[in-house]
């Protein structure tokens, strides 16, 4: 595992320990208005750099608050690009069946410029081994092989 991967997993574990309400959707002090404003601005910026409208969708009952989608007709690979924005630590993840190098560069540049921390999807697919009830073997959200993942914790419905 690279040093960058180790740092990213350490960040996820640190954010996992943040105090919060009686649920895992967002930490104490989460600023919904700020998050909405930043997501809208990211949607505008991606619309500019991809030269066409990108949608911004609000998510409820989840550990992420918005998804910004770039439609296939605007991408080199002619595939959807999804950007999920977590309720924790300005984390972002990019999802796409195929992602052309130039498309990746444009999305990553906008995320970085907006102050988001890009988390590689492969790290989020690792089994969750954090401190919340998601790590308990009790009925609840089960993903993949029957266990929650770091994706569940920071980017999915809970």
Automatic annotation (TrEMBL):
Organism of this sequence: Streptomyces boluensis
UniProt-recorded name of the protein: Uncharacterized protein
């Amino acid at each position: 595992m690279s040093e960058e991967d180790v740092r990213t997993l350490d960040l996820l574990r640190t954010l996992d320990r943040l105090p919060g309400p009686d649920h895992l959707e967002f930490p104490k002090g989460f600023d919904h208005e700020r998050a909405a404003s930043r997501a809208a601005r990211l949607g505008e910026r991606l619309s500019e750099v991809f030269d066409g409208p990108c949608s911004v969708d609000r998510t409820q009952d989840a550990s992420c608050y918005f998804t910004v989608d770039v439609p296939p007709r605007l991408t080199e690979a002619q595939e959807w690009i999804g950007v999920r924005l977590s309720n924790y630590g300005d984390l972002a993840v990019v999802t796409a069946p195929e992602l052309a190098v130039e498309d990746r560069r444009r999305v990553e540049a906008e995320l970085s410029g907006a102050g988001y921390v890009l988390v590689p999807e492969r790290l989020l697919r690792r089994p969750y081994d954090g401190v919340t009830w998601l790590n308990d073997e009790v009925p609840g959200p089960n993903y993949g092989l029957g266990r929650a993942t770091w994706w569940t914790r920071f980017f999915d419905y809970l």
